[in-house]
Known about the structure:
Strand content: under 5%
Number of helices: 4
Radius of gyration: 17 Å
Order of helices and strands: HHHH
Helix content: over 70%
Number of domains: 1
Shape: flat
Amino acid sequence: MQRKLISQGFLLALGEGVYIFLVALVMKNANHLFGNNPGVLPIIAFLMLFVVSATISGALILGKPILLYLEGKKREALELFGFTVGWILIFLVVLLATIAALR
């Protein structure tokens, strides 16, 4: 059972990583999308992206653990949450090490 939770946590963290990558691409190219002198509409778009991003991230990180918890599987819920956060931390350390190695 624990192997299944570890792999589920990995997949959830990977999904979050892919989503973060896509949002980073949009933000990196925001100048091309909105120009140098943004009006109120690009600011609204950014804030909406922020809200949608928080919702998607919350669903990816907390969705399955909450469902498990509500099914009475409290231990599995906490373990899955912990494994997911652990994988995200591992991805972060690898990313930071990669950035440092490229400098």
